[in-house]
Amino acid sequence: MTLVCSLLLAASLAGCGVARDDSPPRPGIGGASAGAGEGTPATATKDTVRIPGENPTEDAAGAAAAAFPGTAAVTRPQAVTLVGENDWQGAIAASVLVGEPVGAPILLSVADELPEVSAAELADLAPTGAELLDGAKVVRIGAVPAPEGLLARTAAGPDPYTRAAAIDRLSSAARGEPSGHVIIASGEQPAWAMPAAPWAARSGHAVLFTQANSLPPATIAALKEHQDANVHILGPNTVIGPAVERQLRGLADRVERIEAPTPVANAIEFARHMRGSFGWGFIRPGHNFTVASVTRPMDVAAAATFGANGVFAPLLLVDEAARLPAELDGYLLDVQPGYSGNPSAGVFNSIFVLGDEAAISGAAQARLDEISELVPVDVSDR
Questions:
Q1: In whole angstroms, what is the distance from residue 29 CA to residue 239 CA?
Q2: What are phi and psi of 107, to 5 degrees?
Q3: Vertex 197, ends 194 and 203: CA angle to 5°?
């Protein structure tokens, strides 16, 4: 995304975009920043945009509104995916439906009814119907409400492993074949699994879950449908153990592990990683990124929307609100854009910050902006 596009999106998030006739302000888009005066718009700087939700449900609605403004038919999604507000595994697995060919952003729900913010956003999105899902306008993950008057498809199961397998079957049916790559993520520790969501949206690669020391039967059965797939374990041995890796080597054409000692470092390693057609490979400037807190795993719903839909941003993590982790600061400095001569010919980084200042502080956002800006580079002594 160019800087101009970033600033245009910032303006729309701050409530300055094209308004829909007779529509109230869309929740999660133009709300006040934490600690700011009433009516202060969400903070947008030259290189960062904050989706200022007090909770992930608001963030998911805000991200969906930014990616699908709905001001014309071509800016409306084919379908919308509904996931329970505590079902982080379902949100990560369902991220595969967010990108092509289905294009179904995720909204969050509770068991009895859609929260007001999600219901309002669903009405604004007005999905057109996904031909590859037999015209469904809603995909329900597990036991979430079925919106009245909207044709729905459901991917259900009694546990996260069977739900992920059901989502995989639905995605494979829509694509006409199973994906050639599968991410195996922890079904027990969300911070290690979160970065899988935007990549699934970007690539269409399935995400299945495992326990630390045992591969669940539902995951084994799903993997057998991906004949000769390449499997990518997300996390170190302490999260997904050697016994699981041995099981996977008996089921897959190739198995690799993407690992680092902490969730923050592991997310960075995933952003850097590329082998063949798998992985972001973000080791140079000129990219979008999303940053979320490990304390809010359901923000993967918003991150997935930004993983596709013209943004293509990997998810990076912070482990405290007040400041950036040293590893994240260092990585963003490594890919900070620079120019020599004409800055108009430079490339730009943009960062989407998920959550209010209780999740990621204003000071942390300011640092993100500082280390993302285009800076002059002195090449005279090179």
A1: 36
A2: -115, 155
A3: 145
Crossing angle of helices 263-272 and 326-334, rounded to 10°: 20
345, HSE (Cβ side, Cα atoms, 13 Å) = 4
Q: 151-185 pLDDT, tens per residue?
A: 999 999 999 999 999 999 999 999 999 999 999 99
Q: Tens of pLDDT along 52-66? A: 999 999 999 999 999
- What is the predicted pLDDT for the residue at 380? 56
Joined together, the tokens standing for residue 28 give 């999660």
pLDDT at 228 (0 to 100): 85
157 three-state secondary structure:
coil
Mean pLDDT of the chain: 89
138 pairs with which residues across the strands? Answer: 80, 152
Q: What are phi and psi of 88, to 5 degrees?
A: -65, -35
E-assigned strand segments in the chain:
48-51, 80-84, 106-109, 138-141, 152-155, 181-186, 206-210, 230-234, 254-258, 288-293, 315-318, 338-339, 350-354, 375-376
Q: How far is C-alpha 9 from the chain's CA centre? A: 17
